[in-house]
């Protein structure tokens, strides 16, 4: 039997008898089942993120051997040691935080505390390396000199300065909704 939850369970045995022996029952006894340990892992929807970008964190709670099964209950997410949002219910052992867009530039500690249930002990986990938030790149467009002639070609200079060591994958240049050009690996 592997389906007994944590706690004490009454176990009895009844013999139904035969032609030579009478019916008998065992004395009531108990089987004590301790809660299984759990492990909590934390992930991020995007890391690093840009300041103001919404990020969702995921907590995955699993049974630690010799325990088995899928933990239920709730998870509380934290950034820099402070709870954010309400506790989130596990669904098939996974909980997703509310989207967070208020993290400022820098590195933020992100953790999740599993609150346990009738069969599993509490556990905590942290996002490895934390959540890195960078400032968005600064894009300056240097317009051509006044006096350009309609339908004539003009040179537009785009200056992109990154505020971190993370490269910019592409810069697109539009006139209204028309794509004029694209720079890759900027």
Keywords summarizing the entry:
single chain; about 190 residues; mainly beta; 5-stranded antiparallel beta sheet; 3-stranded antiparallel beta sheet; about 45% strand
Provide a descriptive summary of the structure in words.
This protein has 186 residues and is an all-beta fold. It is 0% helix and 44% strand. It has no helices and 19 strands. The strands form seven sheets. Strands 8, 9, 10, 13 and 14 form a five-stranded antiparallel sheet that branches. A three-stranded antiparallel sheet has the order 5-7-11, with no helix packed on it. A hairpin with a 2-residue loop joins strand 8 and strand 9.
Briefly summarize what is shown.
This protein has 186 residues and is mainly β. The protein is built from no helices and 19 strands.
Instruction: Assign the structural class, choosing from mainly alpha, mainly beta, alpha/beta, alpha+beta, or little secondary structure.
Output: mainly beta
Biggest beta sheet summary: 5 strands, antiparallel
Radius of gyration: 30 Å
Number of helical segments? 0
Mean pLDDT: 84
Ranges where pLDDT stays below 50 over 5 or more residues in a row are none
- Amount of helix: under 10%
State the total count of DSSP E strands: 19
Proportion of β residues?
A: 35-45%
- List the secondary-structure elements in sequence, H or E: EEEEEEEEEEEEEEEEEEE
Shape: rod-shaped
Through-space gap between termini = 61 Å
């Amino acid at each position: 039997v592997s389906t007994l939850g944590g706690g004490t369970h009454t176990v009895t045995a009844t013999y139904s008898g035969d032609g030579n022996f009478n019916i008998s029952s065992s004395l009531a006894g108990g089987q004590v089942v301790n809660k299984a340990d759990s492990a909590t892992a934390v992930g991020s929807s995007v890391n690093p993120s840009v300041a103001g970008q919404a990020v969702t964190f995921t907590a995955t709670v699993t049974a630690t051997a010799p325990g088995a099964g899928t933990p239920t209950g709730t998870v509380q997410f934290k950034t820099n040691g402070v709870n954010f949002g309400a506790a989130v219910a596990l669904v098939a052992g996974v909980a997703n935080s509310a989207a967070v867009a208020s993290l400022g530039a820098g590195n933020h500690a992100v953790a999740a505390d599993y609150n346990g249930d009738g069969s599993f002990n509490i556990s905590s986990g942290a996002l490895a390396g934390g959540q890195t938030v960078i400032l968005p790149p600064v894009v300056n467009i240097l317009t051509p000199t006044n006096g350009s002639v309609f339908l004539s070609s003009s040179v537009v200079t785009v200056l992109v300065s990154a505020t971190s060591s993370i490269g910019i994958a592409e810069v697109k240049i539009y006139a209204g909704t028309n794509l004029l050009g694209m720079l890759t690996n900027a």
